[in-house]
Amino acid sequence: MNQKIPRFEDIIEAHKHIGTYIHKTPVLTSKSINTLLNSKLFFKCENFQKAGAFKFRGACNAVFSLSDEQAKNGVATHSSGNHAAALALAAKLRGIPSFIVMPENSPEIKKKAVKGYRAKITYCKPTLEARESELEKIVKNTGATFIHPYDNFHVISGQGTAAKEFIEDYPYLDIVIAPVGGGGLISGTSTWIKSCNSKTKVIGAEPEKADDAYRSFKSGILQPSLNPDTIADGLLTSLSEMTFTIIREKVDDIITVREETIVNAMRMVWERMKIIIEPSSAVALGAVMENPEIFANKQVGVILSGGNVDLTKLPF
Amino acid sequence: MNQKIPRFEDIIEAHKHIGTYIHKTPVLTSKSINTLLNSKLFFKCENFQKAGAFKFRGACNAVFSLSDEQAKNGVATHSSGNHAAALALAAKLRGIPSFIVMPENSPEIKKKAVKGYRAKITYCKPTLEARESELEKIVKNTGATFIHPYDNFHVISGQGTAAKEFIEDYPYLDIVIAPVGGGGLISGTSTWIKSCNSKTKVIGAEPEKADDAYRSFKSGILQPSLNPDTIADGLLTSLSEMTFTIIREKVDDIITVREETIVNAMRMVWERMKIIIEPSSAVALGAVMENPEIFANKQVGVILSGGNVDLTKLPF
């Protein structure tokens, strides 16, 4: 690992950098969900973040941390998801080009979002190999800086700003729970929370059918995501060496959640709170639903990570 | 008409009555929708109101305006929709019984909501006649007070509190637009707004396929809803003599909206704002979308009336 690990101060620095670009998202509560789950839940609504997900925090910090010299050639990434849109928007705000490699089978709504932010899109075959080789070509030809969706110091520092806002508003949470894909969000979250108050537990929630972080955490050895197959399409990726290092040190536990519970959790939020969250966001609430012995009578901060859903492909 | 018409002061009184029970709902904005529609829209989010719709304001005011003597026998209504749930919840909060007559073919989600608030439900055939005769029996047998969903002084006064909050936060709106079903919301809204600032226009939005208010408004003669057939299931009812009287005096215009636009407006709010609104709510935004010449470059207050949607029957 040749990158340094973000610290408390880096998240403060990130918040200064991006404060004027991001939304300070609201924290919502639901009396009926609290009653149903016998818990006191506080939802940090990153589904209301710009570009529809927390990813904008990290992408924005990465883009605005570049020197003018670096920035002028633009930024590049490969992603079919929220990081692509987030990076494209951040680049647009800085007035620099963005180059996005997307699998040709990406959902229309995601293509539309990325196009809307004026990114230059290159479509490729839907394999990691194709994505990486396309990206390499683009970086070589354009001089753009590759911004990894989570294995990146500035991205993780940016993601930590959601927890910073959360704890500033609600300092006395017993537990904070967030979904785990590549680990950028939980890394930033745990870095902030463990620096503020070591008594607040940090728990990662992962789909049972994409449980690489769980397996890595329990075995102590970084393990790849193997044929992940979950509705939570933001959580398919594997941890990186950097996010795994942070998670081992700062996260208290990782819990896996059944597919059925993910859908039920998503539906509960849609029906009771009247807000739209994507399946990946619902994994954190799903963990609360499946483990009452951990969360009962606790003050629990739940990070709702995003709200980008293809409305023509709902699981209801 | 044997009921008096609500005035400005009655809405103030209503707000005092119900202030501790209702949510003061937030006003949200969307930069991307403003850009798309070349307008400055402010959305009053009654989809976040208790029981999921503005209806709780009126029902709550009606329930808490009863004397103890009247209240002890409970309240009754016939409704397949939001008024039923709202009345049941208001009655529960006052600790009195509620009796709801619902058509047997009402959506499961609405039955569940009403049951959840401990109402006594009587199912009937899905005709107005069956509903009214069942209700009459219940009122006779129990002594419960019938609370009409809109042809009721206290209900209209309660609905006006949404506009009161709206104008307190945003006094300089050029136009306020709200959906029209039976006319309770637009009556309360126009009563408040025309008392505050006669320069703010009040416009009602109605589905083209349930256009009784439009026909009544344009002809000056109260006309019934004839075979209404719209996805906006909260707007099927006809105006009453009282709501028509208020609308004629205080509403500046009524605009009809095509079904396709209602669905597009609903989708726009779901996708861009990440909040759930029901089709009836989307009619007001649909009117803005179809009439740029009226709304362009104006500050427009849009009342999003509710968020109760059957997720298994979405139009996308």
Oligomer: homodimer
What is the element string of chain A, with H for helices and E for strands?
Answer: HEHEHHEHEHEHEHEHEHHEHHHE
Task: Provide mean pLDDT of chain A, rounded.
Answer: 95
Measure the end-to-end span of chain A: 43 Å
Q: Quick one: CATH class of the largest domain in chain A?
A: Alpha Beta
Structural class of chain A: alpha/beta
Work out the count of structural domains of chain A.
2
- What is the count of helical runs of chain A? 14
Most extensive chain contact? A-B, 17 and 17 residues
CATH topology of the largest domain in chain A: Rossmann fold
Overall morphology of chain A: globular
Instruction: Write down the Rg of chain A.
Output: 18 Å
Query: Which regions of chain A contain 5 or more consecutive residues with pLDDT less than 50?
Result: none
Query: Judging by the overall fold, what is the CATH architecture of the largest domain in chain A?
Result: 3-Layer(aba) Sandwich
Strand content of chain A: 15-25%
The total count of strands of chain A amounts to 10
Describe the main β-sheet of chain A briefly. Answer: 6 strands, mixed
